[in-house]
Amino acid sequence: MRIVTWNCNGALRKKYEFLAAFNADLLVIQECENPAEAAHGGYKEWAKNYLWVGDNKHKGLEIFAKEEIVLEALDWEDAYQGHQVKYFIPCQVDQSFQLLAVWAHYNNSPNFGYIGQLWKYLQLNKQHLKKAVIAGDFNSNAIWDEWDRWWNYSDVEKELKEVGIESLYHKFYDEIQGQESHPTFFMNRKVARAYHIDYVFACQELTKSLLNVEVGKVDEWLRISDHLPLICHFNNLNHKFTAPCLVH
Q1: 122 phi and psi, to 5 degrees?
Q2: Which domains does the chain have, with CATH numbers?
Q3: Closest CA relative to residue 15, chosen from 4, 72, 200
Q4: 204-234 per-residue burial string, b: 16 or more CB within 10 A, e: under 16
Q5: Are 112 and 150 in contact (CB under 8 A)?
Q6: Which residue intervals of the chain are DSSP H helices?
Q7: Pairwise CA distance, residues 25 & 95, whole Å
Q8: Is the pTM of this model over 0.70?
Q9: Where are the alpha helices (DSSP H) in 31-125?
């Protein structure tokens, strides 16, 4: 099974064919239009099995799956102390594992923009993360941690680690958070302004099935988006687990 996360930087109707080479079972795509309201016939035909959320039909968060995969949307809490966070899609995949799609958005929040949105979401729903993959654009990295802030990227990473969920990129490449050798985002598509802000996290039981982690090539992807895709290849995820993915 292959899981890919990619911020397409809008207009996925013009770019979805580039994803065919991955033969991905699950695609988590940020900044893409809602297929139900798209006028592009080819895009609508391609997007047969999906879940989408967004305030704007032209730019939201989506999970695409192969037709034989069953996606069941989960009703998780999204209002933290009266403030609705966005964008997140929790779902069950083939009654086998949970997938939480993430696009950490500014959300007009003066204090909890971007990674703060994910921190809030975890406070509401961390107890649900039993057999989970978390994939998406976190819009953050440990290099931007602030000493007087309790919801830094490192705080989110620590909370996930406490329930046995870790970054597959860092696991596979044996790299330290904040010292990534493969960036996933290029500010204004400039190679000199490169950062690692896209992630796939998974619980320990799923991590055992990990075969490979790749980041898309700059010369192939930077011309169509300011993000590179992050690809995770697993041996097999379509099985029932005998134990929850928690640290004992």
Answers
A1: -70, -35
A2: 2-234 (3.60.10.10)
A3: 4
A4: bbbbeebeebbbbeeeebbeebbbbbbbbbb
A5: no
A6: 41-46, 115-125, 153-162, 168-173, 204-207, 218-221
A7: 15
A8: yes
A9: 41-46, 115-125
Tokens of 75: 């009703």
User: Which run of H or E residues covers position 186?
Assistant: strand 185-186
Distance CA 200, CA 4 (A): 8
Q: Give the pLDDT of the chain (248 residues) as one tens digit per residue.
A: 999 999 999 999 999 999 999 999 999 999 999 999 988 889 999 999 999 999 999 999 999 999 999 999 999 999 988 889 999 999 999 989 999 999 999 998 878 999 999 999 999 999 999 899 999 999 999 999 999 999 999 999 999 999 999 999 999 999 999 999 999 999 999 999 999 999 999 999 999 999 999 999 999 999 999 999 999 999 977 644 333 343 32
Locate 171 and state its tokens: 């696991």
